[in-house]
Amino acid sequence: METQKKRVFSGIQPTGTFTLGNYIGAVRNWPLLQDEYDCIYCVVDQHAITVKQTPAELRKKTYESAAMLLATGIDPKKSMMFVQSHVPQHTQLSWVLSCNAQYGELGRMTQFKDKSAKHADNINTGLFTYPVLMAADILLYNADLVPVGADQKQHVELARNIAQRFNNTYSETFVLPEPFIPKIGARVMSLQEPKKKMSKSDTNEKSFIVLTDTPDVIVKKIKSAVTDSEGVVKYDVENKAGISNLMGIYSVMTGKDFEEIEKEFEGQGYGVFKTAVAESIIDTIKPIQDEYARLLNDKAYIEDVLREGAQKAQYQANKILSKVYRKVGFAQF
Ligand code: TYM
Asked: Measured from the CA of 197, which atom of ligand 1 is nearest?
């Protein structure tokens, strides 16, 4: 008898071009899981509006994000891919889950604390209930695994807690999801402040690389990455955060482990190492950039993929949503 494949769900906000952090921490793994798992990937535009967006820009970025996901290797024949606002069941389930999530546990979310400090003029309730919508994204498809970077681990654990609480109250309904976090690159750091996460919202553009950066720009950004004065390529996160971050990036780009990398650059300065890191990034993302450019010219194809993805997702989502509605006691005819 054929065993059913485990299910994977993940999402990304269309708030800018994907950074190398998004790629290494999450997106790179998405196509790699397509054969072994039943994968669902989502452009989460509803999460994006928890901070102020320019409407025309958000629309454009949503489309570009979908193109970039396809360019990184997501195959719509194997995976389901859609835009969150095209599947209203996410917000419908989110309401029910919010009545099963506690104010206190949401207040403990570090992303909420960080974002409310950063956007002190706009601490809207969406920013606070953000993880409940994320729980709905995951639980609506009974996902087993959620491939994300380390910064999203707390949110996946919250989704798991909400699912467990719901199951205990209303009987077995949701699968308890687990985060799937890469061993290397779960937290790619800023190139300028290597104790801080690489983020597309950073005001210093030199602190992050985006997947559309040209080779020249990548070389410049890596050359200006903050390191230390020791001149030894050695993995030591505590004392050599900058070099360790570049080693992590290089390791993922080339498949070499830290020991191999230390040997490769033994007795050589940071200049040689940085050139190699920049080249490894350029080589890896070149085919993605070519495919992205091609796809951007084929809007009809992207729309078809998203339309079909939304239809399939709605079909799946309705199954769980009607079960949930029945369990909580909503009258159904
Ligand atoms: P978002 O859009 O901020 O980031 C998308 C993915 O990129 C990872 N990431 C990083 N990984 C390593 N190093 C970094 N510097 C780095 N920066 C970002 C994030 O961990 C994430 O996996 N809440 C989510 C989106 C979301 C979601 C979901 C994810 C909504 N619903 C359901 C999984 C399942 C977010 O804001 O990701």
From this structure: 15
